[in-house]
């Protein structure tokens, strides 16, 4: 890490202006840590696998990092986590990881202004569901006590207090999620710390697993995955495949008047099934979306942190470009592009 950061500094690629998450800005950058997606395709090259969490908090690239993830809610016992090779020790007599080193890294990251959020769900073989409001409420109590501001005998990250929860729900019964969010918000409303609730739907609209949660629950950030699907960002000009407007409308209709949408992108050519674009095309496409939908544009999300180390020039230039071109405060109108009329600043 040290030498690669030296190279970055020397070439000036990390020309990024702000490091801290600001919900009123359009230039926040989110990533996901804990699954080592690069390593999955490079099993024989552990030297380049995903680094420690704190390694991704040493510079200004990321504002929010999703700790992925809770794979089994285990409502009758303790929730089960997976962090690939990063942490494999369990509390005695349980199936729940104890990761005090990650807890220390969480605090290091938070001290640098980053938000570290717990991601629930994920793709693959995992099993999780919240089928009733009662289950949602109960699980919210567990999450609050084990990971957020409450207290519990088993805290996987020790006394580190995470900054919120990310719903990456790709399967299972989902009728209990609105109650889950509502119950968490009763805790959040009594706390001085500002917590985040986010979700990571696929770009196909509406999302089969998250749709009713996104329309019925308070959401701060929506990280829409514009990859792995026909609606990936390469199809921005194909109205049959690319439906950003519906996402924008859904975001504006959220009970949170400041709900934001993030453009989810692959951080490397092999990071997701499709949607990886060269920087020039990507920047032109992002500029269109930011120009047309400024008031809901929160920033970008990159899948995942393991690609940062292995595609660093791309990720760093993209981050620098987003910081420089996407602004803070809805009243800052972007420069118009092509022949589009200049949009009046929205207030
Ligand atoms: C549910 O939690 C209990 C207590 O931690 C544990 O013994 C059990 O293995 C967990 N179930 C699963 C499926 O991991
Ligand atoms: C589990 O129990 C063993 C034996 O008592 C002890 O050495 C170890 O530290 C315990 N591990 C945890 C994570 O509590
Ligand atoms: C953005 O607005 C311009 C001008 O109205 C339009 O030509 C373009 O298709 C829009 N792009 C998207 C992705 O909405
Ligand atoms: C938006 C997004 O990529 N969310 C991710 C959060 O973490 C889980 C687990 O690794 C991923 O599956 C999600 O895709």
Structural class: alpha/beta
Q: Strands of the largest sheet, in order across it? A: 1-2-4-5-6-7-8-9
Helix percent reads 25-40%
List the ions, cofactors and other small molecules found in this model: 2-acetamido-2-deoxy-beta-D-glucopyranose
Domain count, please report it: 1
Q: Count of helical segments?
A: 10
According to CATH, the fold-level topology is TIM Barrel
CATH superfamily: Glycosidases
Q: Unreliable stretches, pLDDT < 50, 5 or more residues? A: 1-18, 331-347
Mean pLDDT across all amino acids: 85
Taken as a percent bin, the fraction of beta residues is 5-15%
Termini separation comes to 42 Å
Classified by CATH, the class is Alpha Beta
Number of E-type strands: 9
The CATH architecture would be Alpha-Beta Barrel
Major sheet size, sense and barrel closure: 8 strands, parallel, barrel
Radius of gyration: 19 Å
Shape: globular
Query: What series of H and E elements makes up the topology?
Result: HEHEEHEHEHEHEHEHEHH
Protein name: chitinase
Pfam families: Glyco_hydro_18
Domain GH18: 27-321
InterPro entries: Cts1-like, GH, Glyco_hydro18_cat, Glyco_hydro_18_chit_AS, Glycosyl_Hydrlase18_Chitinase
